[in-house]
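Re: weekly structure request thread

Next one in the queue (103 aa):
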Amino acid sequence: MIPAVGLVGFGLAGRVFHAPLILASGMEIVGVVSRQRDAVSAALPAAGLLPDLGALLSLPRLDLVVIATPNDLHECRPWRRWPLAGTWLSTSRWPLQARARSG
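Done, posted below.
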């Protein structure tokens, strides 16, 4: 099965680096969270354009999430300064899948 990838952010890094690398690796981008509606539609017509991370994480087919937003939004700390990773980690299905894959 082809891995299904969600991409958060479609600015310069998401558009020029992450998306081409994901596709060249043989993976499929199934959803993109971005305000860049026209750019996403032109570059990834088969991917769903989603309003927020919650909508992306609720996709039924999603194996990997790439966060391509500005650096200060990536990381999760106990004080929740960086919300994207914290939202991802707090979703019940992801920690279970990570444990299942690690053995």
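The radius of gyration is 13 Å. The mean pLDDT is 79.
Next request, please.
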